[in-house]
From TrEMBL:
This is Undecaprenyl-diphosphatase. It is a multi-pass membrane protein. It catalyses: di-trans,octa-cis-undecaprenyl diphosphate + H2O = di-trans,octa-cis-undecaprenyl phosphate + phosphate + H(+). GO terms for molecular function: undecaprenyl-diphosphatase activity. It comes from Acinetobacter defluvii.
């Protein structure tokens, strides 16, 4: 077993767990971390980046099991709150799953690069800054209060997450806030919305690209990275929920803008830090 490869996989898992649910683009950070560490071949690394996101989403399922189970069973039992949340999540998941299946591979081939990541970070940062400076009136305090119409709009906004650097969490959280959803409810809805999207994308990508992996060691590397992302994400989820209860996302706006400009500078000049 290549211990250095496992160490790099662990670092990638930590990066995924920390960034998946923050509005700063987990995919963008993983692409950059992969290039920085010269992690695996590009083919394997691109699949790894998608696959280990399932570890982070497993942390959401673990942390919110009771509420998610209520949404699932509510679809059958008719319990109002659970049924409403379940229908909202299903409808909000449809747009990105349709677009992802149709154009996901093309997007990965064309936009999985540092310039796309930089532009996505900067544009997203400017949008977060604007929303925090002009906060809309809140009409949905809890995740169960999000209307079906709002859920569909959030689902359409989530399609932007196919562009590296945009951030699925950033798009859904800020998009929900623009529609009048509270910061806490927007964050939780973003958590839940990631479940079908990320699991679907991970399974599809592994199915389409399993041939690039060679033997048991490669799959152990993916498994180890996924486990590390689960633990890291579980910690981050608890910290983030406490954070958004008291603070805004302005720090992430500035982080995105500054880091995007630095990445763009290095990409356009050809300078390297490594």
């Amino acid at each position: 077993m290549d211990l250095l490869l496992l160490l790099k996989a662990a670092i990638m898992g930590v990066v995924e767990g920390i960034t998946e649910f923050l509005p700063i683009s987990s995919t963008g950070h993983l692409i950059l971390a992969s290039e920085l560490m010269n992690f695996w071949t590009k083919e394997k690394s691109d699949v790894f980046v998608i696959a280990i996101q399932m570890g982070a989403i497993a942390a959401v399922i673990y942390e919110y099991w009771a509420k998610l189970w209520g949404a699932a069973t509510g679809l059958v039992s008719g319990e109002p709150k659970g049924r409403h949340l379940g229908i909202s999540l299903i409808l909000a998941s449809i747009p990105i799953m349709l677009i992802g299946v149709t154009f996901g591979q093309t997007v990965k081939e064309l936009l999985f690069n540092d310039i796309s990541v930089a532009i996505g970070l900067i544009v997203g940062g400017l949008i977060i800054w604007w929303v925090e400076k002009h906060p809309p009136k809140v009409n949905a305090q809890e995740v169960e209060n999000i209307s079906i119409k709002e859920a569909v709009y959030i689902g359409l906004i989530q399609v932007l997450a196919l562009i590296p650097g945009t951030s699925r969490s950033g798009a859904t959280i800020i998009g929900a806030m623009m529609l009048g959803v509270s910061r806490k409810a927007a964050t939780e809805f973003s958590f839940f919305l990631g479940i079908p999207v990320i699991i679907g994308a991970g399974v599809l990508d592994l199915y389409q690209s399993y041939h690039v992996f060679e033997g048991t060691q490669d799959w152990l590397v993916i498994g180890f990275g996924t486990l590390v992302s689960f633990v890291s994400a579980l910690i981050l989820i608890r910290v983030l929920v406490a954070y958004v209860a008291k603070r805004d996302f302005m720090v992430f706006a500035w982080y995105r803008i500054v880091s995007g400009l630095i990445i763009l500078l290095f990409a356009l000049t050809g300078w390297r830090l490594w």
